[in-house]
Write a structure and sequence with these properties.
Pfam families: Trypsin. The protein is of the alpha+beta class. 17% of the residues lie in helices and 30% in strands. A hairpin with a 3-residue loop joins strand 13 and strand 14.
Amino acid sequence: MENMLFWLMFFTLGWTIIDGSEMEQDFMWHLRKIPQVISERTFHLASPTFEADAKMTLKRVCGIECQKELPAPSLSELEDSLSYETVFENGTRTLTRVKVQGLILQPTPNITTKGASVRRKRQVYGTDSRFSILDKRFLTNFPFSTAVKLSTGCSGVLVSPNHVLTAAHCVHDGKDYIKGSKKLRVGLLKMRNKGGGKKRRGSKKSRREANGGDQTEDGKENLKARAKAGRKRKESARGQRVAEGRPSFQWTRVKNTHIPKGWATGGTGDAALDYDYALLELKRAHKKKYMELGISPTIKKLPGGMIHFSGFDRDRADQLVYRFCSVSDESNDLLYQYCDAESGSTGSGIYLRLKEPDKKNWKRKIIAVYSGHQWVDVHGVQKDYNVAVRITPLKYAQICLWIHGDNALCTSG
């Protein structure tokens, strides 16, 4: 157990076991000029029915091979996919068309998959390497404190005082918003207070007088009944002591939800896994430390090739579960890995810890959103992965616009 805690502390501090040649590499957040995503026109749409089942339905997942055979998307196609729906807490909905500026289209080879189907079984590979975070010292501190739970059963991550990043399929199945997302809530971790209730005021005499005195038969029976009830309360309190100090959730309503049109097809096409991300604006700001967005680097730029994320896996009732693993493969938009993760952890923010430019300190940033388990066709052979949607420069610009409402604040990342 002590060894496990040691390794947990070792990896949560952001270090990984890497050889000397990797130690010499420059693992740094490099500032990049970001293309601009500009809101052009907003249209009112019919209110959604909120009748979809809470599951991801993908008829076509393009991954490790098929992108090699497909032409790169045109600028107009990218603008259409990056246009977005906004659903407000009163159930109304809008569509905002966007224009992209400053993007240089380059046909780069992609390593993604053909015709993948979704597997709804275990997402744990071999030995379960997940850590349940139970210690308050970890649970209530950064970076674990940035993880949140959605009322629809998914996870998410705090990315501003008012916003949560999660997977799009946690609120929308590609054609309609899922049941329960109309009154969507976000649960922030908090610790239950220790100690019992307030002590009663007044003397025994005054309590006896309030009960009609202890000299009458009725008064004596009343006192006996109250004493019996008091013993039961004490016994019940003993049983609840174990629960004291354990985490619970402070639930906050969601003010509005943004989803890219590349995912929210509305029945006109297939939802694209590349766009399985959404941003939730909270009705009330929180006071926790949040995780900033970062541009997803290539595998070679990951320290030790490792990624990290924490979420609320359903097989570990309301426990925050942390894991780390190496990335096995990548495409322009997806990361393929074998991090152990059960349902409920989807929507978690995947993060890295890299050095800031011209500074000695290191910083964690969100570089992808965990989407879930997929079967993919690799050179004609079916392989399964746990997949995450990378934050590309274009997606960074879009999410940044959702957060700030001003693309002038999203010129570099």
